[in-house]
Specification:
It is built from ten helices and eight strands. The chain is an alpha/beta fold. It has one domain: Alpha-Beta Barrel (TIM Barrel), CATH 3.20.20. GO terms for molecular function: isomerase activity. This is Xylose isomerase domain-containing protein TIM barrel. Keywords: Isomerase.
Length: about 280
């Protein structure tokens, strides 16, 4: 069975000892690992949390975004240089956490739009930054798993077809892709086709309900998703990404204005749901 993870963004985007009881309880539920958001400036905390998580026997993945002043698809050479430095910093913090996968939509600035569809030069600029980031990540044995987002959060990569194009342009073995069931529910025609498209470079999966609450409680076509993953023989993390208003600053930044489910309801019921779906689909 594939490893099952949980993203602690359901509680906090911070990095401190306050995460320890959450990590311990996720371990008791049965999770194989946890996913952390890399953004907090407290560098020492990353090693502290990483050591704690490692000592519990849990694996780690990480996720991040970049801001408009660190945008890999900016027309400005200086801004693109800042984007690479930022991604390198995130790779360093991911290494401190003992992560081997850094995922997220850091191919472009999150929720930052131009008055046009994605341009060829924007793909080229992003690919150039990502290739250099892949070179840096390889030294830390970290895979960069790029994420396609829905049209309300991103315009460079909304679909697996666009994401596949970008990964090919980046042309580095440490630059790969991830699949998120929430975004795919908005942007893809069919899950099986989307997964077949990204299969050659797929390294990570987010299990996320249509409302970002407990997986299995909404209308995501879960049988299609898990059957599609089984069809491509996916072997990797199945990590729940769900959100709440526990961290108001982060919630405000991503447009989370209400509670979907209690985070522990999501963690406990989501774990059981993934196990059941993996058994059902021989994943």
């Amino acid at each position: 069975m594939n490893k099952i993870g949980f993203n602690v963004l359901a509680w906090s985007a911070g990095m401190s000892e306050e995460l320890f009881p959450i990590i311990e309880r996720l371990k008791k539920i049965g999770y194989d690992g946890v996913e952390f958001f890399v953004g907090s400036p407290d560098e020492a905390a990353y090693k502290q949390v990483g050591n704690f998580t490692r000592d519990l026997g849990l694996g780690v993945t990480t996720v991040t975004v970049v801001s408009p002043d660190q945008n890999p698809i900016s027309e400005s050479v200086a801004v693109r240089a800042k984007s690479l430095e930022r991604i390198k910093w995130v790779i360093d913090r991911s290494y401190d956490l003992n992560s081997q996968i850094l995922c997220g939509p850091f191919h472009s600035a999150h929720a930052h739009f131009a008055a046009h569809p994605a341009l060829d030069e924007e793909y080229a600029w992003s690919a150039e930054v990502l290739h250099a980031a892949g070179e840096y990540a390889a030294q830390a044995n970290i895979v960069l798993a790029l994420e396609a987002l829905n049209r309300f959060e991103c315009y460079l990569c909304n679909t697996m077809s666009q994401l596949s194009r970008l990964v090919k342009l980046a042309d580095h073995p440490n630059v790969r892709a991830m699949f998120d069931t929430h975004h795919a529910n908005i942007e893809e025609k069919k899950y099986d086709r989307a997964l077949a498209t990204i299969a050659p470079v797929l390294s990570h999966v987010h299990i996320s309900e249509n409302d970002r609450g407990t997986p299995g409680d909404g209308h995501i076509p879960w049988d299609d998703a898990f059957a599609g993953l089984a069809a491509i023989h996916y072997k990797g993390w199945l990590t729940i990404e769900a959100f709440s208003r526990n961290d108001p600053d982060f919630a405000n930044a991503i447009g989370v204005w209400r509670e979907y489910n209690d985070p522990w309801h999501i963690a406990e019921n989501g774990f059981t749901f993934i196990q059941q779906m993996c058994i059902k689909h021989n994943l």
